[in-house]
Amino acid sequence: MKQQLHIVGGGMAGSEAAWQAARMGVPVVIHEMRPKVETFAHKTGNLAEMVCSNSFRSDDDEQNAVGLLHWEMRAAGGLIMASADAHRLPAGGALAVDRDPFAETVTERLTALPNVAVSHEEITDLPDEGHWIFATGPLTSPALGDAIRAETGTQALAFFDAIAPIVYADSIDMDQAWRQSRYDKGETEEERTAYLNCPMSRDQYDAFIDAILAADKTEFHDGETATYFDGCLPIEVMAERGRETLRHGPMKPVGLTNAHRPDDKPHAVVQLRRDNALGTLYNIVGFQTKMKYGAQTDVFRMISGLENARFARLGGIHRNTFLNAPTLLDDQMRLKSKPNIRFAGQVTGVEGYVESAAMGLLAGRLAAAEILGHALPPVPQDSAMGALVHHITGGAEARTFQPMNVNFGLFRPVDGLRGGRRGRKDRYKAYTDRAKAAWSAWLAQIELDAA
Ligand SMILES: Cc1cc2nc3c(=O)[nH]c(=O)nc-3n(C[C@H](O)[C@H](O)[C@H](O)COP(=O)(O)OP(=O)(O)OC[C@H]3O[C@@H](n4cnc5c(N)ncnc54)[C@H](O)[C@@H]3O)c2cc1C
């Protein structure tokens, strides 16, 4: 009798993990607490319920990283993508989904498999034995959250994200910005130049504050409490407290000299910090915000050096339970301190339906392979799956880790291609071609191993 795989949470990630493992021949039990125990966002007892928008975002697998993830999941026979395709709604280049029939299809197809059982119960601890995947999502139940904290330490599990916008490095105008850490602090040249600085004159600063105050903001969902404030005030809240507050906070100009115009003392400075080991992404330090996405791009492009910025992700603050995955998980998505447990989905620090399902797909395959005694080759870093899992399990800066959408900034650059906005189309096509080849080769390798 093969060992069972227990999957906690039957959302996007847990459902996909169960499908992949069961199709590899492993018996699976999904432990889903709904409908017995509810969350503030879910409304049904279905597996894979979409809690808010009904969009899987862009379906363009040549020019868009999330579209590429769709492609890779389809190539791997993913249930979430097949069910989304079956209930697709017209939405231009995006993949919009008829949410109720979608979740019903996922539920029916999973429960129709002879080796899948669903047990409606809340799991409140991290077992010492057996094979487990925890895919309990952004609204992980409080009792389980306590158990995870007890295992990982309080610093390693967050209950809110506070996401500062992330900019593609090659879209920052380095004729305006300069590299320097405040007071040139640091032991090495790399540390002394760890930040990118964007200067502001008094007039620019005044206009910037006016724009922040006037911008449209998003409200918290019902049931989300606003106890996030300690240490991560949204910039608009700081601006509301006083026009000078930001200049004394994240935008303070002290300890910095404009390398392009040393005699010109900036009135305020916006700092960006490297966000990944590849150096392709920079986050705007301290700029977590509830401004609406359209308003954010308009306001942040007022900053000198960011006039043409492209954003890998925009800022936000949400109720969101997630691990500091770069420190806690190994490259097989196992908890280092308890390797019989894997984590998958949004709780690992990815963001979004598609990314969560993708991480479920990987965790399901990795866990099933372990149970079956097959060692899988490493997930190729040039695929979208590999770029994302590599980011959360080591590529991201652990100290400032916040949830991440898939984006091309997570990919290793392709040599010999032009940077910047002009080369973008060719570059993205090169990334997606390379990713598809790498992912197809990985899948073929597994099929050969299993044969
Ligand atoms: C209010 C809100 C709005 C969002 N809006 C969007 C959006 O518009 N677009 C988007 O892409 N993403 C959105 N997200 C993020 C979205 O939740 C995730 O992208 C996706 O659902 C995560 O998939 P998952 O499988 O990791 O978690 P989920 O889909 O949430 O699944 C986790 C499952 O685990 C169960 N569970 C939790 N704790 C336990 C326990 N102890 N025992 C047993 N079962 C448990 C839950 O009931 C749930 O079914 C939103 C999140 C929230 C909270």
Automatic annotation (TrEMBL):
Q: Which cofactors are named for this entry?
A: FAD
List the EC numbers from the record: 2.1.1.74
Query: By its UniProt entry, which Pfam families does this protein fall under?
Result: GIDA
Q: Which InterPro entries match?
A: FAD/NAD-bd_sf (IPR036188), MnmG-rel (IPR002218), MnmG_N (IPR040131), TrmFO (IPR004417)
Q: Which Gene Ontology biological process is one annotated for this entry?
A: tRNA methylation
Keywords associated with the record: Cytoplasm, FAD, Flavoprotein, Methyltransferase, NAD, NADP, Transferase, tRNA processing
Sites binding FAD sit at G9, G10, G11, M12, A13, G14
Using the UniProt record, name the top-level EC class of this enzyme in a single word.
Answer: transferase
Entry's Gene Ontology cellular component terms:
cytosol
Report which reactions are catalysed by this protein.
uridine(54) in tRNA + (6R)-5,10-methylene-5,6,7,8-tetrahydrofolate + NADPH + H(+) = 5-methyluridine(54) in tRNA + (6S)-5,6,7,8-tetrahydrofolate + NADP(+); uridine(54) in tRNA + (6R)-5,10-methylene-5,6,7,8-tetrahydrofolate + NADH + H(+) = 5-methyluridine(54) in tRNA + (6S)-5,6,7,8-tetrahydrofolate + NAD(+)
Task performed by this protein: Catalyzes the folate-dependent formation of 5-methyl-uridine at position 54 (M-5-U54) in all tRNAs.
- What protein name does the entry list? Methylenetetrahydrofolate--tRNA-(uracil-5-)-methyltransferase TrmFO
What gene name is given for the protein in this entry? trmFO
